[in-house]
Specification:
129 residues; alpha+beta; 3-stranded antiparallel sheet; two-stranded antiparallel sheet; 3 helices; 5 strands
Length: 129
C-alpha cells in the first residue's frame, strides 16, 4: 500500500522448516499472509473495503493490484463474513425477490435499530426460503 504516495513493498523469504509432527519439510506459516498470495491479509481487507466504494477496476488500478488479486481479497472477506454471521436475536424478517429475469430470495432483518441483509438464496422458490 502506498505510504505518502511512495510505493511500499514487503519482501520476506519464507523459511523451509522440518515439521516435527509429520517429518516433512514445509514452508513456515506467517500471521500476515496466506500461502503464496502477493498481498498481506491487512492489505486484502483494505482492498475489499475500497471495492465497496469504487468499481473493482478503479480499486485495482488505484492500488496497483490485478483484478484477480482484488477478487481474491473480496472473496476472503466474504468467506470470513459467511463464517461469522450471527442470526441470533432476530425478531422481524422481511423477504423480497430480485427484479428482472434472475431471481434471488433476499431475507432482511427489520428490527428497530438494526436493518441488514443477513442472507441471500438462489432462485425464487419455496424450497429456497
Amino acid at each position: 500500500m502506498p505510504v505518502l504516495a511512495l510505493p511500499v513493498a514487503l519482501v520476506y523469504a519464507m523459511r523451509r522448516v522440518n515439521c516435527k509432527s509429520c517429518s516433512k519439510v514445509t514452508v513456515e506459516k506467517v500471521p500476515w499472509a496466506d500461502g503464496k498470495r502477493p498481498v498481506t491479509k491487512a492489505f486484502a481487507w483494505m482492498l475489499a473495503g475500497w471495492a465497496q466504494r469504487l468499481s473493482w477496476k478503479q480499486t485495482a488500478s488505484a492500488f496497483g493490484v490485478s483484478w484477480e488479486g482484488l477478487h481474491r481479497s473480496v472473496a476472503m472477506v466474504v468467506r470470513w463474513g459467511d463464517a461469522h454471521v450471527c442470526l441470533k436475536d432476530i425478531r422481524v424478517l422481511g423477504v423480497a425477490w430480485h427484479q428482472g429475469h434472475q431471481y434471488l430470495t433476499l431475507v432482511y432483518q427489520l428490527d428497530a435499530g438494526c436493518r441488514r441483509l443477513p442472507w441471500v438464496g438462489q432462485h425464487r422458490k419455496q424450497k429456497t426460503l
